[in-house]
User: Which sequence fits this backbone?
């Protein structure tokens, strides 16, 4: 072992328009700005009600002009998040559309109601929803996926299974199937 007693602390992402990103993470995700550096970096924390909230769980950094030019050359500067939504396969693993190597950023919420409330709020804003609500096999957690303004998928997760250290079960090998990714699969049937 080289690193001892480690926990995941924060994630840092580069964004196309930092003001739009801050608006999303404060208005939609109920986060707060802890500090800023000039007009190109912001530190964001989860709400004060989250008892583990620290100075920041996220750092958002504006792409430089040079980086924005590269995105523009690649035709990736303007995003239509609803386009991605339409390309989603009906079945199978989450297969989230992403705009970079980060597959998703997960935030914990207390329960299923917090997730259905979010679905309502996102629908009111006509904000795309990529997957869910559903329940993963591994972890047994309830999930919902939707994109942030740069297309980084956000996952809301609730009721994650305890790890073996606190009374959970030993590792299990899951089959590669859509039921593994979502044990509810046909969530419409639940309504
Ligand atoms: Fe996840």
Assistant:
């Amino acid at each position: 072992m080289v690193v001892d007693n480690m926990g995941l602390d924060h994630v840092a992402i580069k964004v196309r328009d930092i003001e739009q990103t801050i608006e999303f993470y404060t208005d939609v995700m109920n986060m707060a700005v802890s500090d800023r550096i000039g007009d190109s970096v912001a530190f964001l924390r989860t709400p004060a009600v989250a008892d583990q909230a620290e100075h920041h769980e996220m750092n958002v950094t504006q792409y430089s002009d040079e980086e924005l030019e590269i995105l523009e050359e690649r035709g990736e500067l303007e995003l239509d998040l609803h386009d991605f939504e339409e390309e989603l396969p009906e079945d199978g693993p989450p297969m989230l559309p992403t705009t970079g190597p980060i597959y998703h950023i997960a935030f914990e919420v207390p329960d299923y109601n917090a997730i259905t409330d979010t679905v309502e709020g996102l629908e009111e804003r006509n904000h795309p929803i990529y997957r869910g609500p559903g329940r993963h096999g591994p972890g047994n957690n309830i999930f919902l996926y939707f994109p942030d303004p740069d297309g980084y998928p956000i996952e809301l997760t609730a009721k994650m299974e305890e790890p073996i250290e606190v009374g959970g079960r030993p590792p299990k090998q899951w089959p590669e199937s859509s039921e593994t990714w979502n044990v509810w699969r046909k969530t419409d049937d639940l309504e």
